[in-house]
């Protein structure tokens, strides 16, 4: 290999990178629209994801209106109810959470936190965003095509997804699948960037084990996404062929409306395998960045180093590895060899071990810390509570005999919303409150932030706690109306109404958050460079917000890990990563260890 | 799903093993020093694009492994009638092998600094690759003329799907090839195209490997007769 140099020092990149290496746009359009600056791309991703997430939030409000007050709203019929369920789920999981954590936070934070000027392939990075936007527009277009968007449920199971009678069977499903395929192509472009940038573009001294856990979470989640999204890609392409060309990958021979269809012998279970082979890692694609960000938020605001850093890193890696061998626990009711069921139940429960380690470490980081109850910290602690709650019901559902009766009930809905919706979104809020000052140079309003936190946090429990009980009663999910069923008492309806009221309140309060984002951009308190007194590199930039190139003339050199908070003997309670060690404290620490 | 599981376990094991080696025995909470003259930051001693290509190949491997898994699972269906492998595929395989050899030729020439060799290698590789793609289309045409439509049987559908995805990957590679060839045609030095040629060669070898695996898959699939008639498929058809 001609690129292998034999002198090791040849690999030390110079701390100074010539300005000419960066593409400097001159015009407004070049700077903010067709931008190749990862920070701008990150913000573009975030704004798009939040916008499309608001659509999904409204859809969930409409669904709740129907469940809480049936026969009241004439504009909701069984067909568009199913369409709302489908679009809500898919948008939230893929187009909001995945895009926001990896495309949004990944783009903004990776170069800044590892001390790089930009992503390694800025042009590809820009393409990634525009393809994502195109995928979002395709998806939104499906609301307006004849027949409307698909109503197949977010899992898009065939044969029902492409059978006459399901809403959006002609246009909606095709647009959904094509949009997903584009999303995956765009994501792969971004994902290559995130992985290669973390591997190759770290500044001098930034070893892997000095990376903040945020970066570890995003890095591992990206690896998972790169390997898992092809499964969704393959199944999307195959289902498009089934629908458009009449192949029988997934479609069995069946009779629909008295007619023998041309399909023959296809395997719906094959789709389920492919879908969940993507679908389960997807849970961790969303969770791992959240884990990483929460670790940093807790450490910064408890003014303490993260407890068990190395264990935290290994837990992230272990969870990532394990997440590929648990997918079939979503398919217990599809029928499988009992030994497979046993295998997948076991692996599912094993994942609880590294996850629990992380929870213990967060709690131990808080233990005797100098806790500052800032808004990001409140969201972070809220996350730990909620994640434990959601995780515990996961232990129920991971077991085959308990899953079988609970499957397709509201219990499952409550479980995955606790663990995969409320938990990550609390982290998203915490992270936005935490990094908004770096992005805009202004603090978000604290009072509005605290109000937003308490209503969201308590409201989320008011929504999802009762939902577990509905699930125990056997109330099924995805049903337009649940009436005249013997085993469901009338009181379930009152509970549903209460849940709807809570959901509408929580949904409305998000407007306060949006208002805060806009108001603070103009009127917020100037933040300075390092308002949280944090150690990581993004807070040590010469300018806030950082300019293109991030660090001015010279890149920072890293001397320590990201968690030097409240170091004994130090003058202040944090030491930035790029602060050189003074001889005396360094040698004293070497001895004491 | 066993195939994809094995492939992904291999990929994940590599990732985990590498990360473990990087992180074991490292105690970041103690160490406080600049890491100056060692490869301390742990970056791979490769240009970033090469690492990028490696990561992309892992993604593509996941994609093809999933398709092969799906192929095996779907094969168990009673309606599966294995495709008789068209003879033309042998010819196409030969063309793809030659294109890979030509790429390697260009790569070696680039390493030795001989721009003429690079030029000949790139042009030959392009010709053989286009030959391969044209040959694949020709096989498609033959098959559909003989009535092997995609919708007629899952084996046919898989054949079209696998060859199409493989061909699209080659087309993507041809984009980089075209840029490199255009540069060479403009008369730039070897240094300006060496990396592109390296990347193309690695990618071509990879796609040759994928093709050989896919071709072996087609050849090794045991022929099966459809025992179900359309009237009885609801009874004797697959239950899974």
Label this structure with key terms.
heterodimer, A: 593 residues, mainly alpha, Cytochrome C Oxidase, Chain A, two-stranded antiparallel sheet, globular, disordered N terminus, B: 240 residues, Four Helix Bundle (Hemerythrin (Met), subunit A), 7 helices, 0% strand
How is the topology of this model organized?
The complex is a heterodimer of chains A (593) and B (240).
Chain A (H helix, E strand, L loop, with lengths): L27 H6 L4 H31 L9 H37 L7 H20 L30 H29 L12 H32 L10 E2 L2 E2 L7 H35 L6 H14 L15 H29 L8 H23 L2 H7 L3 H31 L5 H28 L17 H33 L59 H10 L1
Antiparallel strand pairs in A: 1-2
Helix pairs in contact in A: 2-3, 2-4, 2-14, 3-5, 3-6, 3-7, 3-12, 4-5, 5-6, 6-7, 6-8, 7-9, 7-10, 7-12, 8-9, 9-10, 10-12, 10-13, 12-13, 13-14
Chain B lengths: L1 H22 L24 H28 L12 H25 L2 H31 L8 H32 L4 H31 L12 H4 L4
Helix pairs in contact in B: 1-2, 2-5, 2-6, 3-4, 3-6, 4-5, 5-6
Write up what this structure looks like:
The complex is a heterodimer of chains A (593) and B (240). Chain A is an all-alpha fold and 593 residues long. Chain A has one domain: Cytochrome c oxidase-like, subunit I domain (Cytochrome C Oxidase, Chain A, Up-down Bundle), CATH 1.20.210.10. Chain A contains 15 helices and 2 strands. Chain A has a two-stranded antiparallel sheet with strand order 1-2. In chain A, a hairpin with a 2-residue loop joins β1 (255-256) and β2. In chain A, α7 (268-302) packs antiparallel against α10, α7 crosses α12 and α10 (375-397) packs parallel to α13. With 240 residues, chain B is mainly alpha-helical. Chain B has a single domain (46-226), classed as Cytochrome c oxidase, subunit III, four-helix bundle (Four Helix Bundle (Hemerythrin (Met), subunit A)), CATH 1.20.120.80. Helices cover 72% and strands 0% of the residues of chain B. Chain B has 7 helices and no strands. The longest helix of chain B is centred in the C-terminal third of the chain and has 32 residues, at 154-185. Chain B is flat. The chains are: A mainly alpha (593), B mainly alpha (240). Chains A and B meet through α5, α6, α7, α8 and α15 of A and α1, α2 and α5 of B.
């Amino acid at each position: 290999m001609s690129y292998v140099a034999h002198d090791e020092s040849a690999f030390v990149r110079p701390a100074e990178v010539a300005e000419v290496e960066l593409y400097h746009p001159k015009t407004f359009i070049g700077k903010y629209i067709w931008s190749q600056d990862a920070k701008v791309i990150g913000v573009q991703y975030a704004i798009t994801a939040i916008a499309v997430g608001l659509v999904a939030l409204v859809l969930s409000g409409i669904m709740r209106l129907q469940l809480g007050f049936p026969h009241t709203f004439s504009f909701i019929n069984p067909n568009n109810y199913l369409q709302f369920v489908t679009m809500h789920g898919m948008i939230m999981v893929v187009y909001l959470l995945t895009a926001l954590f990896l495309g949004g936070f990944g783009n903004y934070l990776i170069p800044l936190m590892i001390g790089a000027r930009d992503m390694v392939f800025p042009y590809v990075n820009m393409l990634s965003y525009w393809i994502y936007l195109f995928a979002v527009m395709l998806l939104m277009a499906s609301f307006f095509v004849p027949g409307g968007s698909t109503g197949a449920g977010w899992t898009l199971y065939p044969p029902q997804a492409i059978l006459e009678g399901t809403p959006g069977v002609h246009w909606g499903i095709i647009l959904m699948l094509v949009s997903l395929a584009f999303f995956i192509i765009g994501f792969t472009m971004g994902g290559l960037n995130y992985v290669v940038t973390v591997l190759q573009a770290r500044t001098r001294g930034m070893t892997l084990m000095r990376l903040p856990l945020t970066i570890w979470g995003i890095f591992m989640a990206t690896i998972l996404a790169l390997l898992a999204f092809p499964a969704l890609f393959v199944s999307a392409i195959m289902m498009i062929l089934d629908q458009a060309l009449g192949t029988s990958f997934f479609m069995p021979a069946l009779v629909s409306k008295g007619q023998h269809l041309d399909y023959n012998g296809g395997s719906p279970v094959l789709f389920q395998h492919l879908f969940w082979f993507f679908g389960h890692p997807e849970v961790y694609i969303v969770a791992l960045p959240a884990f990483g960000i929460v670790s940093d938020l807790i450490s910064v605001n408890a003014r303490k180093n993260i407890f068990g850093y190395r264990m935290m890193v290994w837990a992230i890696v272990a969870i990532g590895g394990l997440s590929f061998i648990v997918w079939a626990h979503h398919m217990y009711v599809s029928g499988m060899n009992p030994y497979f069921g046993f295998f997948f139940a076991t692996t599912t429960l094993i994942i609880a071990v590294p996850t629990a380690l992380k929870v213990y470490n967060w709690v131990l980081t808080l233990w005797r810390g100098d806790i500052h109850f800032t808004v990001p910290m409140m969201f972070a602690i809220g996350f730990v509570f909620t994640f434990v709650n959601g995780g515990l019901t996961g232990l129920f559902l991971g077991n085959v005999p308990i899953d079988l009766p609970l499957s397709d009930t509201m219990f499952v809905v409550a479980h995955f919303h606790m663990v995969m919706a409320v938990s990550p979104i609390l982290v998203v809020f915490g992270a936005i409150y935490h990094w908004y000052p770096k992005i805009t140079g202004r603090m978000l309003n604290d009072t509005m932030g605290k109000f937003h936190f308490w209503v969201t946090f308590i409201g989320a429990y008011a929504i999802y706690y009762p939902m577990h009980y509905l699930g125990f009663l056997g109330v099924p999910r995805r049903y337009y109306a649940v009436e005249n069923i013997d085993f469901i008492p009338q009181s379930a309806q009152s509970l549903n109404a209460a849940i709807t009221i809570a959901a509408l309140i929580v949904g409305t309060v998000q407007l306060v958050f949006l208002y805060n984002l806009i108001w603070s951009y103009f009127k917020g308190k100037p933040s300075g460079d390092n308002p949280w007194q944090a150690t990581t590199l993004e807070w040590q930039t010469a300018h806030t917000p950082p300019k293109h190139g991030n660090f001015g003339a010279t890149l920072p050199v890293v001397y320590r890990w990201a968690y030097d908070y409240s170091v004994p003997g130090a003058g202040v309670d944090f030491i930035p990563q790029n602060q050189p060690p003074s001889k005396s404290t360094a040698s004293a620490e070497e001895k004491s260890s | 799903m066993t195939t994809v599981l094995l492939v992904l376990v291999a990929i994940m094991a590599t990732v985990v093993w590498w990360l473990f080696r990087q992180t074991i025995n490292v105690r970041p909470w103690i160490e406080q020093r600049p890491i100056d003259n060692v490869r301390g930051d742990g970056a791979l001693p490769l240009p970033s694009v090469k690492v990028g290509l490696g990561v992309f190949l892992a993604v593509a491997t996941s994609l093809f492994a999933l398709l092969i898994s799906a192929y095996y699972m779907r094969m168990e269906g009673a309606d599966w009638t294995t495709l008789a492998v068209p003879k033309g595929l042998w010819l196409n395989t030969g063309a793809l092998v030659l294109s890979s050899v030509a790429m390697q030729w260009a790569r070696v020439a680039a390493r030795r600094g001989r721009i003429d060799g690079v030029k000949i290698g790139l042009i030959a590789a392009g010709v053989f690759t286009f030959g391969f793609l044209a040959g694949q289309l020709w096989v498609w045409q033959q098959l559909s003329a003989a009535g092997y439509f995609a919708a007629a049987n899952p084996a046919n559908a898989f054949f079209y799907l696998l060859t199409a995805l493989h061909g699209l990957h080659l087309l993507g590679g041809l984009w980089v090839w075209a840029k490199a060839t255009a540069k060479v045609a403009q008369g730039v030095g070897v240094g300006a195209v060496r990396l592109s040629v390296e990347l193309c060669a690695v990618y071509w070898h990879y796609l040759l490997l994928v093709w050989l695996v896919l071709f072996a898959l087609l050849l090794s699939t045991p022929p099966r007769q459809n025992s179900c008639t359309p009237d009885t498929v609801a009874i004797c058809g697959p239950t899974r």
